[in-house]
Fold:
Amino acid sequence: MGGVVGPEPVYTVATGRVLGNVGTVLQPGAPMSTSPQPLPVRGLLWGLGYGASVSTVHLVIGMVLILAMGMPPLTWFAVKAVGAELILGALLGLIASPLLLAGDRGRLLHPAALALVWLGMERWVAVDPGKLQMWLAPPLVALVVMAIGYAIARRSPRGLIGGTVALNVVLLSMPVVRYAVMFDSSEALAERPDAAAGQPDVLFIVMDTVRAQSSSTYGYERETTPVLTQLAAEGVRFDQATAPATWSLPAHGSLFTGTFPSVHNAHAETDYLDDKLPTMAEVFQQAGYETRCFS
Structure:
């Protein structure tokens, strides 16, 4: 610690590390200090910065998909995902902190190592590894985002914090606002026809990975599906029902449209239903029902 006394102002050199970015800030009125942060702290903060960058990329992708597909906001899930990625980034950054001993080269090696590990994790949890852009893009784009954050932090660490928080709030709010406008509009409800008097409520339950041979409703020795057995006793149970496909997407497309995968086109090549086909939900809506989906 050393101070400069005289007519010139006294400065302190503070290393500002915000979301993994390092910036130098001159603050008048305090003694000079040039001592660096401990290595584990630097690694942890750099890792926190990379985790924040990845979570921002994931938020952008997720919110765009939610808006494009008309899905519910999933806000609480997104908030938990952001928190998990921040914690994971900080832990990985701490583990990789010895790389920062390499000086300027370490500033490249450290985030590169984090990106490489993150790529492996993304590939491991990928629902469809064949869609390279879905698991390759976030860790790699996050490196660019982190570099931009580094440049901003050198000029204004507080600006980086404020901008990051504001961006996340906006991203999380967009689906909420869109959902409120779309589904709580009195005009839209007024335009919907009234369902005929006495029409029953309809609940469509899908248990995607339940096999008949493991269900007590169909003779399995353990009592695995007692509620389903009760429902079957009160209605009709079909003993010969064959799925039109062996996996979820085309099978659900057939459930919702009453057509084969070769007709509705929701399969590995296109991923989306043919918009010319009416779905079960649309038919119910035209009959005056208010439709919802919960997953």
Remarks:
- The first strand starts at residue 11 and ends at 18.
